[in-house]
Amino acid sequence: MNRNSETHKHSELHSSTNTRVSTEMYVELLKKTILFEIWHEHELDLFSKGPIVDPNKLIMGEIWPAFAHSMIGRMRMDNLQMCMQSVLQENIEGDFIETGVWRGGSCIFMRGFLKAHGVNDRNVWLADSFQGLPAPNTAKFPQDSGDRLYTIDYLRVSLPEVQRNFQKYNLLDENVKFLKGWFKETLPLAPIDKLAILRLDGDMYESTMDSLTNLYHKLSKGGFIIIDDYALSGCRAAVSDFRSKHNIKEPIIKIDNTGVYWKKTTE
Fold first, then answer.
1. 44 to each of 32, 50, 68, 267, how far by Cα in Å?
2. Name one GO biological process term (predicted).
3. What is the tens place of the pLDDT at every residue in 202-257?
4. Number of structural domains found in the chain
5. What is the pTM assigned to this prediction?
6. Phi/psi-derived region of residue 111, left when phi > 0, alpha when psi is between -120 and 50, beta in every other case
7. Residues 97 and 198 sit within 8 Å (Cβ to Cβ)
8. Does residue 33 lie within any of the structural domains?
């Protein structure tokens, strides 16, 4: 190999390394911004109505943040990144979706991650009523009896507000798709062929079951399903009932005190 060839090879390697490092730095900064970690000393917990006393609650996503664009915390955000990295490395077909998006932070991270890796042939879907949670239908879903989340204004984030949050990161583009309405109305008709990431954040039995029933069969083999609210009894019961009905045997893996996930290994 002559000197010019060696120099060219070294230059290509150096450029590739710089690109990888730049991508990793952007993705990490995006997480820190969405989670408000850079300014964590100014964050407030609106659930406990005061400053954050235990910083571990930030990491575990166990607060209702005043400013962050996501409440899932560092551990669940890192899990989402790990799942997306695996999907890209293994070339698993399909789009990404979150059912129950709140301020849109997780989906902003999905789109930013894909864009940082030069991926423009996957859509990021946001399914939400954009008016909070539904009142429990206890006649059909007694597992949701006593649930009061539908009364909490804090959990109601409008579609325009979520779109503005995307715009703040310059990430609102043609690959971001919105499904506005109750899951039972929008998910059966969603124009989605395949999914590689299925992230559920609907809190309730009904919302979780609607998401699983209408979307799990679209999840590609090798794709990931993430259950954000597994610690909540209604959500956990829906997951258990669905897995039992469909004989799903993949092990459930714990993320933190709230979330779990598994990798789909069978069609």
1. 16, 6, 9, 44
2. antibiotic biosynthetic process
3. 999 999 999 999 999 999 999 999 999 999 999 999 999 999 999 999 999 999 99
4. 1
5. 0.92
6. alpha
7. yes
8. no
In a domain? residue 66: no
In a domain, 64, yes or no: no
Has residue 2 got a pLDDT over 80?
no
Residue 48's pLDDT is: 84
**Structure confidence by residue, pLDDT tens digits, 148-183:** 999 999 999 999 999 999 999 999 999 999 999 999
Closest of 183, 40, 83, 184 to residue 125, by C-alpha: 183
State which residues form the domain around 172.
73-263
**Which letter does DSSP use for residue 64 in this model?**
-
Residue 29: inside a domain, yes or no? no
CATH of residue 167's domain is 3.40.50.150
- On whether the CB atoms of residues 47 and 64 are closer than 8 A, the answer is yes
H/E element holding 179?
A: strand 176-180
